[in-house]
Design a protein that fits this description.
This protein is an alpha/beta fold and 308 residues long. It has helices spanning 11-23, 48-57, 75-82, 93-107, 112-122, 150-156, 180-186, 197-205, 208-215, 237-243, 250-256, 289-307, and strands spanning 4-8, 29-33, 39-41, 44-46, 128-131, 139-143, 146-149, 163-168, 189-192, 221-224, 227-228, 231-232, 263-267, 278-282. The protein has a single domain (4-39, 126-307), classed as CofD-like domains (Rossmann fold), CATH 3.40.50.10680. The strands form four sheets. Strands 5-2-1-9-10-13-14 form a seven-stranded parallel beta sheet, sandwiched between helices. A three-stranded antiparallel beta sheet has the order 7-6-8. Strands 3-4 form a two-stranded antiparallel sheet. A hairpin with a 2-residue loop joins β3 (39-41) and β4. The longest helix is centred in the last third of the chain and has 19 residues, at 289-307. It binds guanosine-5'-diphosphate (GDP).
Length: 308
């Protein structure tokens, strides 16, 4: 039996998780999700990466926008704007309902992991979705425009500021959410999704107990590169790497995960020039269900080979 754990952010990661639950029994897949992007907005707790996973895995993701729900209506935003409320962060009506329910449950003292499990059930998702922690570990961007909360950088400023450093506030004192360490210990393969290594995967790795569990792993760890042809498929990964003084290459990705991964899955078109770990290649661009299943299958068979 293959028990797979996947460390994931939002869009890039959700595609791999979607592929995994297509090729494995969903109950054998556990996603450990970045919550460094979480923030309070209009008094609500928003968990962008968890929601991207929930919408993608339940087939409700908005493919045109690349975020939020399909078939969304925008009455709330329209009235909010008319009343002079902040409109830099878009909340569709259906999305809003989810944020209200999550915020209510948290205000009643429930944990983020419990609320996430309930929501995943409601959406009929068969795999386990675990936030990295129940504690708040906000990602803070130190930029040429000063200190920015993550969503101010990512959404409001559309990643335009130049990044000098990235901080995960409170990570050193944060405990992994219930089930995270158990899932890592019981997995027979651990995958790192092709999520942004610096903004989506690093917050998870910044939690000391998670990093320790990965270093002491029995199972092989395979990362899927977010780069294809020296470019990120989407988002600021390549821009960020350049700003942090890194070559935009698979070698840099492998070096970034040094000591934590046993293999790197790269795109067929990319050079294998010795990233210092075992390498496997396939077409890693995931546009449709078939692509997602192909990348997931390749990652599984690569990890299985590494375990032997
Ligand atoms: P976010 O949290 O929504 O920003 O999303 P992630 O961090 O999970 O994903 C963003 C990363 O996914 C970017 O670095 C992209 O290059 C990568 N990505 C997105 N789609 C694909 C894909 O189809 N294949 C690969 N290899 N990487 C992808």
């Amino acid at each position: 039996m293959t028990r797979a754990v996947v460390l994931t952010g939002g869009v890039g990661g959700a595609k791999l998780v979607h592929g995994l639950i297509d090729v494995l029994p969903a109950q054998d897949v556990t996603a450990i999700v970045n919550t460094g992007d979480d923030f309070r907005h209009l008094g609500l707790h928003v968990s962008p990466d968890i929601d991207t996973l929930i919408y993608t895995l339940s087939g409700k993701a908005n493919r045109t926008l690349g975020w939020g729900r399909e078939g969304e209506s925008w009455a709330f935003m329209q009235v909010l704007r008319e009343l002079g409320g902040p409109d830099w962060f878009q909340l569709g009506d259906g999305d809003l309902a989810l944020h209200v329910l999550r915020s209510l449950a948290l205000a009643e003292g429930r944990t983020l992991s419990a609320v996430t499990a309930d929501l995943a059930d409601r959406f009929g998702i068969g795999c386990t979705i675990l936030p990295m922690s129940d504690a708040s570990v906000p990602t803070i961007i130190d930029s040429d425009e000063g200190r920015l909360e993550f969503q101010r950088y990512f959404v409001e400023r559309q990643c335009r500021p130049s990044v000098r450093a990235i901080h995960f506030e409170g990570a050193v004192d944060a405990a992994p959410a219930p089930g995270v360490l158990e899932a890592i210990a019981e997995a027979n393969m651990i995958l790192i999704a092709p999520s942004n290594p610096f903004l989506s995967v690093d917050p998870i790795l910044a939690i000391p107990a998670i990093r320790k569990a990965l270093r002491e792993r029995r199972a092989p760890v395979v990362a899927v590169s977010p780069l294809i042809g020296g470019q990120a498929v989407k988002g600021p990964t390549a821009k960020l790497m350049a700003e942090l003084g890194l070559a935009v290459s698979n070698q840099s990705i492998a070096r970034h995960y040094d000591g934590l991964i046993d293999g790197l899955l790269i795109d067929t078109g990319d050079q294998r020039d010795d990233p210092g770990v075992a390498v496997s290649a396939c077409a890693t661009l995931m546009k449709d269900r078939e692509d997602k299943a192909r990348v997931a299958s390749q990652a599984i068979s690569f990890a299985t080979r590494l375990a032997q």
